[in-house]
Specification:
Blueprint (H helix, E strand, L loop, with lengths): L2 E4 L6 E6 L5 E7 L2 E6 L5 E8 L4 E7 L12 E3 L12 E2 L5 E2 L5 E5 L6 E5 L11 E5 L7 E4 L4 E4 L11 E6 L2 E5 L1 E4 L2 E4 L5 E6 L2 E7 L4
Parallel strand pairs: 1-7
Antiparallel strand pairs: 1-4, 2-5, 3-4, 5-6, 8-9, 10-11, 12-20, 13-14, 14-18, 15-16, 15-19, 17-18, 19-20
Amino acid sequence: MVSAIQLPKGIKIKSADLGDSSRFEVKKRSDNTLAVKPTGAGVDSSMLVYTEDGDVYSFYLRAEGINSKSVPDVSFRIIGPQSAGMSFVEFDGKGNPIGGGGETALATHNSKDFLQTAKFDPGALRGWNQYKLWGDKKLRPEQVFRDDHFTYIQFGDKWNDVELPTAYVVVDGIDELVNTRVQGTTFIVESTHRLITLKSGQSFMCIQYTGGK
């Protein structure tokens, strides 16, 4: 069964990467629309969609199993971030956040399915050298830090070569996909969960915060 994913009006898709291309096929149908088709029942994968403006949309794809009683949706329309009142944190040339008088950022809270706006506070940034990292070297970041709402990941010289991963946190013993975005050369995970796992194909990197609250 084929599904269509439509990004906001005015967005132009540049390319898309599948975590496992043997499980799903993806084709561009228009400037802002993709057609996604699973190659079998019960399979799952991640998908990253890159736009000409430099934004990245991340998706978790899952095909229903043969015995599923659910009727899957076949059309998805993504509403632009402006409808949620979201603006982005600014970064300097080195990828460090700039405090601009309290820019509004969209915060996703892990245990509750709701969104709220929060003021960006440079003074809340913390966590430098307080992360334990293990996994594949090619996904190992050079710097990780956080604030009250997001985790900021910088790959340094690897930035131009790294295939941007998807991010997961463990909720009730199950890996749950969390939103990510790119600002400058900083990869932002919209979660402050103590253990975040980055996955790209068969590669992974675990990022565990060891500091205080």
